[in-house]
Amino acid sequence: MYLLIPAAGIGKRMGSNRNKLLLEVRSQPIIAWTLKAAAAAGTIEWIGIISQPTDWPDFKAILADLKLSKPVELIIGGSTRQESVYNGLQALPAAAEQVLIHDGARCLVTPDLLNSCAQAIRQCPGLIAAVPVKDTIKVVDENGIIQSTPDRQQLWAAQTPQGFNVKLLKQCHAEGVRQGWEVTDDAALFEMCGIEVQIVPGEETNLKVTTPQDLAIAEFILSSRGL
Ligand SMILES: Nc1ccn([C@@H]2O[C@H](COP(=O)(O)OP(=O)(O)OP(=O)(O)O)[C@@H](O)[C@H]2O)c(=O)n1
Ligand SMILES: C[C@](O)(CO)[C@H](O)COP(=O)(O)O
Q1: 55 lines ligand 2 (CB under 6 A)
Q2: What was the pLDDT predicted at 17?
Q3: What's the pLDDT score for residue 127?
Q4: CA 212, CA 210: separation in Å to the nearest integer?
Q5: Nearest ligand to the C-alpha atom of residue 78
Q6: Residues 222, 202: contact at Cβ < 8 Å?
Q7: Is the CB of 160 under 6 A from ligand 2?
Q8: Would you say the CB of residue 148 lies under 6 angstroms from ligand 2?
Q9: Residue 92 contacts residue 73 (beta carbons within 8 Å)
Q10: CB of residue 30 inside a 6 A radius of ligand 1
């Protein structure tokens, strides 16, 4: 299975003056934890790290330390996650029929979840890891007034990995460019193109490290795993 890791962000919500994936938890860069999980997932045979060239010296040093046994390519990221994934798709090996896309910021992903998504994507055109929502969710207007309360039974929090048929995802991304669609995950492009996306059970610990508070949570979870 081919894995694309979007890692080209700037971490605005982290308040960091550098790519948040270079920040350390449990004495290792966030991206290193993500890469270690990918390395330990037996189904992953190739890794593409979508990243800003300004970060490449740091990423190359991390890769040198990790000594991964799988091929790793650095791919130039874009100004949005959507653009970064678009670039990543163009750089996939020609042999890639399916792809997993996993946020570099989701450094607590387990190899088991990567493997289960890699196996499941062989049975469907698109899938995402997701967990049921625990809070009651409100739809709120621009004045902060609640407009509706969706049925919680139908609400899931999307995570990554997200998996796709490569040919279809390339078509959906191209349509997104043509239509000017702006999405925050790749599954949305499938949905907008009318292609079914399957939910795969995610993990409550599969946190996207986004704000400074998330660093402490990631530290705790890694520590609880004895890492
Ligand atoms: N232009 C971008 C923006 C984001 N990402 C990646 O997409 C993942 C999810 O994005 P997010 O958590 O929002 O990261 P940032 O965009 O860096 O955070 P912020 O929105 O706070 O700036 C991250 O691994 C990030 O590196 C990317 O590859 N290219
Ligand atoms: C892809 C994602 O992780 C699914 O929850 C999320 O949409 C990424 O959003 P971000 O704003 O790019 O972090």
Answers
A1: no
A2: 85
A3: 98
A4: 7
A5: 1
A6: no
A7: yes
A8: no
A9: no
A10: no
Q: Is 196 exposed, middle or buried (0-12, 13-18, 19+ CB in 10 A)?
A: exposed
Provide ipTM, 2 decimals. 0.98
Question: What range defines the domain where residue 35 resides?
Answer: 2-224
Here the tokens at position 25 are: 């938890």
Q: How far is the CA of 108 from the centre of ligand 2 (A)?
A: 15
Q: 72-76 and 46-51: which strand pairing?
A: parallel
Q: Quick check: helix, strand or coil at residue 101?
A: strand
Number of neighbouring beta carbons within 10 Å of residue 207: 17
Task: Please tell me the number of the ligand nearest to residue 202's CA.
Answer: 2
> Given pLDDT bands bounded at 50, 70 and 90, which one contains residue 138?
very high
The CB of 116 under 6 Å from ligand 2? The reply is no
Q: What does the pLDDT average to over 161-186?
A: 98
CATH code for position 7 = 3.90.550.10
Ligand 2 pocket, residue 158 CB under 6 Å = yes
CA of 185 to the centre of ligand 2 (A): 6
Q: What is the pLDDT of residues 67-126, one digit of tens each?
A: 999 999 999 999 999 999 999 999 999 999 999 999 999 999 999 999 999 999 999 999
Domain count, the chain: 1
Q: How far is the CA of 76 from the centre of ligand 1 (A)?
A: 14
pLDDT at 118: 98
pLDDT value at position 222?
A: 98
Average pLDDT over residues 123-140: 98
